[in-house]
Q: What sequence folds into this?
């Protein structure tokens, strides 16, 4: 290299370094931090630019100084203005911001010169950042830099390439430990106004150096400024470790964003799409083609997803274990059957709600659902009695343990009996709003399903008290729940009960107005081993009806819920604490307005293991609270006095004493307690979650 050319090259390099230094002086604090972190990369880039600038055509530039004011140049170095300099005239300047050197100080444009670097240069600089911390610092500088960072795939960072090269050199017999950045430990949830593309971009950059994003949930995004395909694409490029994605009510995300997720996030295992009107079969097919590890898929109210997408999922996702489809009008028999008829199907949980499927789909489920353990069918208006009958007789649901059917007209006495015979290992059965089911079908089902343990009936209005008694007498139920069954009427049986149901441990009868005194007495005689009793909403029962049940429970009651039983008095609580105080752990008397302080005195004297007490809207006063606080053996954790107007500021010392063990205290609508008292109480009981 020519000696004069070497000198000029060194001068240009020195001037470039000085210019960068002066530029830094004009940057913001966040930009300065970024500059010092990437200084080696930037200096290397400047050197490359200068090298390229002098390696063009072999043309010589003759005459003239590089500066209009030769005096300014003379202050830095002494170079003759007539020396021939090796310089290609056709090269354009990389940085256009001029620097003017004055006699005492320099002046520069208001815009920092580093901001006018071409995006290609910034892209190359960002690619060479060593880790997540440095990338996060860059992202804080400006939105422009944040957007540039989100355009870089994680695999494009030089640090990722170095790690991969080093991994390839390690012997196969050496056990490798994955880096923290790829494990996907972090969970992020964006809701409402917080769900924007900018926040997703920040999440994509910020999580890469702190364990990696493993689970992302976006709910209720705005259609005007919410999440779009751009934000989801940023997550895809920056978070390849993503394993679970949930999108609820996202109107602006479509196939493009979901395809980016599929393209980059091959570890995806769980996908939940709810009210995503722009997502169609195309996006679902992309997931099927690129995410073979998918184990759980939930689709709700997605009007553009149909059979095509589900067929791809059934064919290309052999590990799929859970599927839930609700209110998707384009989904029919072909889509549902393809999910279950696959030779490699390991589906164990199936939920189908509000779909236009027919008897054919249920026949496929009954024949091919050999791995299904949980099945939920709801609102299948096109499925007839034949469909449920075939599903039971196909003998394929041998592993089915839990079955829930809601609002299906095809459930009749005949089809229910067939399901009982075909599902030999069924343990839990829930029937909601099955209007054609009667006592005969229920009893036949209970007899044929020999493994049945839990039975729940809701709004099955043709089932009567006689059917319930026959079911309890003929099977080994452990739990029975009746909700809003209006067909149950309180009547006494003439003949004595021939057998007892010693297996029943839990009885829940809620909002069944016909279930009264006679029914309670019969249940008490029939089921002497009850431990959990829930009679909430039975406003017709009285002390005389409940006392025989309490006296017949031999095992000792553990949980008792009597909320809304308006006619019960202290006599019931006195008997309950006397007979079962040694086992009682939960007592709910919410809305029993005839319960007074006498009940709390009985609780304080007899209940040893009680941890949850609710006396909301009862006739409780400060005396009752004082009685509770004086109990030595009581160890309450949750206590509710909501709506007890008789509890006043005088109870504060008693509540403080009780608060030593409390984790939850409800004082809502206690109008006799002042705000100041509540504030002092909250300050004192800092470990307790207090509602007021």
A:
């Amino acid at each position: 290299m020519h000696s004069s050319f070497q000198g000029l090259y060194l001068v240009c390099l020195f001037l470039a370094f000085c210019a960068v230094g002066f530029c830094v002086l004009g940057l913001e604090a966040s930009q300065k931090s970024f500059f010092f972190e990437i200084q080696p990369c930037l200096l290397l880039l400047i050197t490359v630019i200068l090298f390229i600038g002098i390696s063009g055509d072999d043309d010589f530039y003759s005459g003239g100084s590089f500066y209009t004011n030769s005096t300014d140049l003379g202050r830095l170095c002494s170079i003759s203005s007539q020396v021939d300099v090796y310089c290609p005239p056709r090269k354009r300047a990389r940085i256009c911001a001029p620097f003017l050197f004055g006699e005492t100080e320099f002046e520069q444009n208001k815009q920092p010169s580093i901001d006018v670097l071409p995006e290609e240069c910034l892209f190359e600089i960002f690619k060479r950042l060593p880790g997540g911390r440095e990338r996060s610092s860059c992202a804080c500088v400006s939105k422009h830099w944040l957007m540039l960072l989100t355009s870089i795939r994680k695999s494009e960072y030089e640090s990722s390439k170095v790690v991969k090269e080093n991994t390839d050199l390690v012997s196969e017999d050496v056990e490798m430990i994955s880096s923290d950045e790829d494990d996907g430990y972090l969970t992020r949830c964006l809701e409402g106004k917080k769900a924007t593309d900018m926040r997703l971009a920040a999440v994509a950059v910020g999580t890469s150096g702190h364990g990696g994003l493993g689970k992302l949930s976006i709910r209720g995004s705005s259609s005007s400024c919410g999440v779009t395909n751009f934000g989801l694409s940023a997550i895809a490029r920056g978070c390849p470790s993503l394993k679970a994605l949930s999108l609820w009510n996202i109107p602006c995300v479509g196939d493009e964003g979901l395809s980016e997720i599929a393209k980059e996030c091959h570890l995806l295992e769980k996908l939940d799409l709810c009210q995503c009107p722009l997502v169609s079969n195309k996006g679902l097919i992309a997931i099927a083609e690129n995410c073979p590890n998918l184990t759980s898929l939930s689709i709700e109210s997605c009007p553009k997803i149909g059979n095509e997408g589900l067929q791809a999922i059934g064919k290309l996702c052999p590990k799929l274990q859970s599927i839930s489809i609700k209110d998707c009008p384009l989904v029919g028999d072909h889509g549902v059957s393809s999910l279950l008829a696959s030779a490699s199907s390991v589906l164990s949980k199936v939920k189908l709600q509000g779909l236009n499927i027919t008897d054919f789909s249920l026949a496929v489920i009954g024949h091919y659902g050999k791995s299904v353990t949980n099945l939920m069918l709801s609102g299948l208006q096109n499925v007839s009695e034949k469909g449920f009958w075939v599903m039971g007789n196909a003998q394929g649901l041998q592993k089915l343990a839990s079955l829930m059917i809601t609002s299906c007209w095809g459930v009749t006495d005949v089809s229910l009996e067939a399901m009982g015979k075909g599902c030999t290992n069924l343990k839990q059965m829930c029937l909601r709003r099955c209007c054609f089911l009667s006592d005969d079908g229920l009893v036949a089902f209970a007899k044929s399903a020999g493994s049945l343990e839990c039975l729940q009936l809701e709004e099955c209005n043709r089932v009567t008290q006689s059917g319930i008694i026959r079911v309890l007498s003929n099977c080994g139920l452990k739990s029975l729940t009746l909700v809003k069954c209006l067909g149950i009427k309180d009547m006494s049986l003439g003949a004595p009960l021939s057998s007892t149901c010693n297996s029943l441990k839990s009885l829940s009868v809620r909002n069944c107005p016909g279930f009264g005194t006679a029914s309670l007495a019969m249940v008490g005689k029939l089921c002497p081993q009850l431990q959990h009793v829930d009679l909430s909403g039975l406003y017709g029962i009285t002390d005389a009806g409940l006392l025989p049940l309490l006296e017949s429970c031999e095992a000792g009651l553990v949980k008792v819920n009597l909320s809304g039983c308006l006619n019960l008095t202290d006599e019931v609580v006195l008997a309950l604490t006397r007979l079962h105080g040694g086992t009682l752990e939960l007592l709910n008397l919410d809305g029993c307005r005839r319960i007074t302080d006498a009940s709390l005195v009985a609780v304080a004297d007899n209940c040893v293991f009680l941890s949850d007490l609710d006396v909301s809207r009862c006739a409780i006063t400060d005396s009752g609270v004082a009685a509770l606080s004086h109990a030595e053996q009581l160890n309450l954790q949750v206590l509710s006095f909501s709506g007890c107007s008789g509890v006043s500021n005088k109870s504060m010392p008693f509540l403080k004493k009780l608060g030593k063990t409390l984790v939850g205290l409800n004082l809502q609508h206690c109008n006799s307690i002042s705000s100041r008292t509540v504030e002092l109480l909250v300050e004192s009981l800092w470990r307790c979650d207090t509602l007021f």
Remarks:
- The chain is about 40% helix and 15% strand.
- The domain at 556-691 is CATH 3.80.10.10 (Leucine-rich repeat, LRR (right-handed beta-alpha superhelix)).
- Confidence is low (pLDDT under 50) at residues 1-15, 22-27, 47-109, 161-181.
